[in-house]
Amino acid sequence: MENRRGPILALLLASLGGLALLFEGSPDVPQPFPGPALLPDRVVSVALSTLGLRYGDPQKRRAYAEHDYPGTPLATAEQEAAEQSSCLLHARGCLAAAGADGTMTWKGRTIDGLRVPYTGAYISHVETLLYELARQRGALLTVGADRPVISPGDIVVIGWGGSAPADETEKAAWLATWGGIAHGAVITGVRGDVLTSSDGGQPDSGNGYKPTAIAECVRTLANKGGSWWLGGRRVNYIIQTGKL
């Protein structure tokens, strides 16, 4: 009797392959995120790929605006990107592009905090938004006396507040305590106490040196008077992307 298992098996495999191809391109089937499997590694990959983007370069303006303002109409994104300091907008863009889950409660509503349009008064302060996202998802690490554990892919927020106090005495105390305004750094490399990061909010020579460029920064973690400082500012908190 003729052995027909081989042809039947081949036909079955071919049919399954056809089904796989059918579903692979279907928009209803979730597709795997291209690149590294772990979220922190994907954040690092995105952060490195965006180095050099800036508003002041017409050839890079669109990519810069789309990265910093995911979910926002392009015309609005470019308008906002011309003036706003982009440090934590860059961090938010890295999380969004890396496929992080931005589900959170904000002003009584469930939203995707990483991809909701950044317009008007609804999303008015990106640091508060990211802080709350990390807190709700168990990814927030406040920094005290112990040396913080910082890993590639983490977002480290140094300094405090959005502007310096007007009173000179208060300003001096604020500088001594925090070193400057809040700034977010996306950590891309750790070698002992030396941390490399991809930072938005850097001076943009093509835009009047406004803080609208993304560049690499290198800082050293050090203990000063019982507090941990990174570069010239005190470490405030860390968003641990591996827990998002």
Describe this structure in words.
This protein is of the alpha+beta class and 244 residues long. It has one domain. Helices cover 33% and strands 25% of the residues. The protein has seven helices and nine strands. A six-stranded antiparallel barrel has the order 4-5-6-7-8-9. It has a two-stranded antiparallel sheet with strand order 1-2. The longest helix has 20 residues, at 5-24.
Strand content range: 25-35%
The total strand number stands at 9
The dominant shape is globular
Largest sheet: 6 strands, antiparallel, barrel
How many distinct folded domains?
1
Order of helices and strands: HHHHHEEHEEHEEEEE
- Helical content (DSSP H or I, runs of 4+): 25-40%
- Report how far the terminal alpha carbons are from each other: 60 Å
Rg measurement, Å: 22 Å
Derived structural class = alpha+beta
> With helices defined by DSSP (H or I, 4 residues minimum), what is the helix count?
7
Mean pLDDT: 86
Low-pLDDT runs: 1-33
Strand order of the largest sheet: 4-5-6-7-8-9
Characteristic terms for this protein:
244 residues, alpha+beta, 6-stranded antiparallel β-barrel, two-stranded antiparallel sheet, 25% strand, disordered N terminus
Topology (SSEs and partners):
Blueprint: H1 5-24, H2 39-49, H3 61-68, H4 74-81, H5 87-97, E1 103-106, E2 109-112, H6 126-136, E3 140-142, E4 155-158, H7 168-178, E5 183-191, E6 194-204, E7 210-224, E8 227-230, E9 233-239
Antiparallel strand pairs: 1-2, 3-9, 4-5, 4-9, 5-6, 6-7, 7-8, 8-9
Helix pairs in contact: 2-5, 3-4
